[in-house]
Every structure is written in C-alpha cells, then in structure tokens.
Amino acid sequence: MISYYFDGKDGLYRALQRKWETTNGAARPDLPLAEIVSGFLTPGEPQRSWARLLAWEGLTRAEAPTDPDVDPATDAYFAAMVDDMRRRQQAGELAADLDPAYVQVLLFAATLAPTVLPQVARRMTGLAADSPEFLHAYAEQLRRVIARLAGQSDAPS
User: Fold this and answer.
1) d(CA 92, CA 9)
2) DSSP character for 70?
3) Residue extents of the structural domains in the chain
4) Rounded to an integer, what distance in angstroms lies between the CA atom of residue 144 and that of residue 37?
5) What average pLDDT does the chain have?
6) What residue spans of the chain are helical by DSSP H?
7) Residue 42 φ then ψ, to 5°
8) Non-local CB neighbours of 147 within 8 Å, separated by 6+ positions
9) Which of 36, 54, 65, 118 is the most exposed, fewest CB within 10 Å of its CB?
10) Global pTM?
11) Is the pLDDT of residue 143 over 90?
12) How far is the C-alpha of 21 from the C-alpha of 18, rounded, in Å?
C-alpha cells in the first residue's frame, strides 16, 4: 500500500515531512524561541514518527550536497529555520557570538533526543522519556539553556 499511495518509502517520508512542517508550529516568528523549542517536545505520534524518520534517513543515506533524492522543499524548510534563528539573533534572542546554524542543529538534536534516545533519557533521569514528568522537566531545562544562549542569567518565569 505504501508504494501505491506514496510511491515507496521515500514518498511516504516526504508526505510525513510535509505534514509535520505544516503542523509543528516552527514557522511562528511571533512565539519566543523557548516556546517553539519546547513545543517540539509535545508528545504525539506525528512528532515521534518524524523524528524516527529523520534518524532513519541519517543512518541509511549518505547525503551529498547535490543528492537527487533530497527534496528541495526540505532544504528550503531547514534554511528558513536558520534564517529565523538569524532574525532572532538580531532581535536579541541569541547571543551575537553564536552561529545560528549550529545553534539550530543543537536545539534540533535536543528536541529529538527523547524520541531517538529514550533509553538514555531514562537511564540519566530515571524517568520515561515520554512521561509528562520528564517532558515538563526537560522543557524547563531547555528554556533555561535557551535563556543562557541569549545571554540571560535564567529563564523567564
């Protein structure tokens, strides 16, 4: 059925990615960065599925800059995320001495960690990575990290 509806696994991946891009709230320049990042932690099958697909893609594809299998819309989506981080840096949400692209990679990895590495989260914190207790505490810690990335001493209340 996957081949019929999506023209194979890559088609299914692209369809899920397009769906995720339109529903995740990342394209909300009106929200503070900490709220966007913590929003990525919202437990839900679309987020978990997309995180797993990203991990699968990274483990199974040797991507080159001119890889014909990479959807140009995907590249544009990630470039827009970096552009938004640059805008946020100019607005003071990110310290001037940090590279927005690398910070974006760091935050992206941090939000994927509970889905991609749930066993590590459990072993380090004693909580299941999809539990409300873990997600609340982790989101709060990410808010504090983001505040420090902007040069603030602590997260806003």
Assistant:
1) 41
2) S
3) 2-149
4) 11
5) 80
6) 2-6, 9-23, 33-39, 45-60, 72-90, 100-116, 118-125, 132-149
7) -55, 120
8) 34, 153, 154, 155, 156
9) 65
10) 0.74
11) yes
12) 5
Confidence band for 79, pLDDT divided at 50, 70 and 90: confident
Sign (positive or negative) of CA dihedral 80, 104, 133, 119: positive
Confidence at 106, pLDDT banded by 50, 70, 90 = very high
Domain 2-149, CATH among 3.40.50.1820, 1.10.357.10, 1.10.3210.10, 1.20.1070.10:
1.10.357.10
- Tokens 């990575």 correspond to 129
Q: Which residue has the tokens 């982790």?
A: 138
Q: CB of 104 within 8 A of CB of 81?
A: yes
Reported residue count of the chain is 157
As a whole number, mean pLDDT of residues 72-98 equals 87
| CA–CA distance, 37 with 47 (Å, rounded to integer) | 13
How big is the CA angle at 120 (ends 115 and 122), to the nearest 5 degrees?
Answer: 85
